[in-house]
């Protein structure tokens, strides 16, 4: 979503509009047999491409907003998770249960979490050892880990803090907020990807995209009027470049 790239797309469209203006001014002398190069079809392609660029710009803004909202929502998650574990630790639950909470927190923090829990599990062989792989830091995993931590806290009546931000209903609301923000990013990304595909097809599709059509229009003018003609001199400097898409 480079700003430079997007401005490059817009420059191609603007130059295409200039090229069409020259073709119109050539009047009946501009008379290609190929349908794609006729004035009406050039104008139709211009209109569709302008609309696609405008639509894509809106989708970029929407996605960036959703990403920003998600980042803001997830920002306190790691510190909150540590605070929850500390509150859980002093609530009176046993050490093994605290170790489980710490293991989940280490996932949230992006750390390996074998040592303490594994040592505790060795002392209670009737329960399987829970191994924890390398960090799982995607937003989906973060939500899953926090949900697992909150479910663990909720399963122990000893955990009953007076502080509202640490209470189970508040935490469940926060988890729902994270899920909503994450879903918004995924949904806006789908829309962004669709608008990007449409834009790229109109601009750069082989043979039928604006770029190739523009180059063919210039080639037609060069053939009809001649490489040294005044008419070709008017349009030969109008540049069209394939941009990062």
Concise summary:
With 245 residues, this protein is an all-alpha fold.
What's the quaternary structure here? single chain
Described by the principal axes of the CA atoms, the overall outline is rod-shaped
Head-to-tail CA distance between termini:
8 Å
- Return the average pLDDT rounded to an integer: 89
Number of strands: 0
Poorly predicted runs are 113-136
Radius of gyration: 30 Å
Provide a count of the helices.
9
* % residues in beta strands: under 5%
Helix content: 55-70%
Global structural class: mainly alpha
Structure description:
The chain is an all-alpha fold and 245 residues long. It contains nine helices and no strands. It has helices at 3-25, 39-74, 77-89, 95-109, 115-122, 139-154, 168-204, 210-225, 230-235. The longest helix is centred in the C-terminal third of the chain and has 37 residues, at 168-204. The model is unreliable at 113-136 (pLDDT under 50).
Question: Could you outline the blueprint of secondary structure elements for this entry?
Answer:
Elements: H1 3-25, H2 39-74, H3 77-89, H4 95-109, H5 115-122, H6 139-154, H7 168-204, H8 210-225, H9 230-235
Helix pairs in contact: 1-2, 1-8, 2-7, 3-4, 4-5, 4-6, 6-7
Relevant terms:
about 240 residues; mainly alpha; 9 helices
């Amino acid at each position: 979503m480079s700003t430079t790239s997007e401005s490059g797309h817009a420059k191609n469209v603007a130059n295409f509009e200039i090229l069409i203006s020259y073709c119109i001014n050539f009047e009946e002398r501009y008379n290609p047999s190929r349908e794609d190069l006729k004035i009406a079809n050039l104008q139709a392609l211009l209109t569709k491409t302008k609309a696609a660029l405008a639509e894509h710009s809106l989708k970029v803004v929407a996605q960036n907003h959703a990403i920003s909202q998600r980042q803001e929502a997830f920002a306190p998650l790691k510190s909150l998770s540590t605070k929850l574990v500390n509150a859980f630790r002093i609530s009176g639950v046993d050490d093994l249960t605290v170790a489980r909470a710490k293991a989940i927190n280490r996932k949230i923090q992006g750390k390996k979490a074998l040592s303490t829990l594994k040592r505790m599990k060795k002392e209670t062989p009737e329960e399987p050892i829970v191994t924890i792989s390398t960090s799982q830091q995607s937003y989906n995993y973060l939500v899953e880990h926090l949900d697992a931590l909150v479910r663990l806290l909720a399963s122990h009546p000893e955990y009953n803090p007076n502080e509202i931000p640490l209470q189970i209903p508040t935490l469940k609301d926060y988890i729902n907020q994270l899920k909503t923000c994450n879903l918004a990013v995924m949904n806006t990304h789908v829309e962004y990807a669709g608008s990007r595909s449409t834009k790229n097809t109109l601009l750069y599709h082989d043979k039928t995209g604006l770029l190739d059509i523009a180059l063919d229009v210039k080639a037609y003018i060069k053939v009809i009027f001649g490489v040294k003609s005044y008419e070709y001199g008017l349009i030969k400097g109008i540049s069209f470049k394939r941009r990062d898409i």
